[in-house]
Prior knowledge:
It is a single chain. The chain is α/β, with parallel strands linked by helices. Helix content is about 35%, strand content about 25%. The protein has helices spanning about 45-55, 75-80, 100-105, 120-130, 150-165, 180-200, 210-215, 235, 240-250, 260-264; strands at about 1-10, 20-30, 35-40, 60-65, 70, 80-85, 170-175, 200-205, 220-225, 225-230. Helix 3 packs parallel to helix 5 and helix 5 runs parallel beside helix 6. It is globular, with a radius of gyration of 19 Å.
Amino acid sequence: MLEVKNICKTFNPGTINEKKALVDVSFTLADGDFCTVIGGNGAGKSTIMNAVAGVWPVDTGAILVDGEDISGLSEHQRAPYFGRVFQDPMTGTAADMWIEENMALAARRGQKRTFRWGISKKERETYKKLLASLDLGLEDRMSTKVGLLSGGQRQALTLLMATMKKPKVLLLDEHTAALDPKTAAKVLEATDRIVNSGHLTTLMITHNMKDAITHGNRLIMMSEGQIIYDVSGEEKKKLKVADLLQKFEEAGSANELSDKMVLS
């Protein structure tokens, strides 16, 4: 479903601030794969996410979604292929609009606008059912402005909106990093449920080693712009945090680890 072929990205080339962010990175996600990406500071994990989404073009290489080469498309041209949830809970929703209005926008993504009643009774019932699945009580607050929600509630809503129209690939960019541990666990629980029920091909960036091991069927570790470890299936299920720390040590990348990564 997602093919990344030999992509390279260098920021500020030819200057004193030159940074090789991605160095000949390649990987393929099959339909329904849920892949977590772990890495230290400056490892390239956010760069790979932004490269796939088209935030900036890569220097060389190709990116394909469902067999179609999207390397030459801009960020907004790639939008129909992806559902995205960002690290900042304030991104991805309209704060001054009601919950149901935000959901209506997500449901009509890519459709032509017409003059008719904004939200039908049937649509409202569908939104209520979807919100109830989050178990956050939002189904009883559909006329509440999104800006009044907590960070966790807003992030869960963004996740729901990003998957209402099944995307080719779901991109989760450290989507629980700004949340407290209890709320983060609840959002991750909702993530697993939505991804598994929708059989969504998913790429999730995280700094939390435990989360990288617990969630998904595949794990990729990055260091200095390269993939240094790629594990899936039964081998991934047997992983421990100590195993990931050992891999960082073996790659000479222990200095990339932040206190947050180690303590988590």
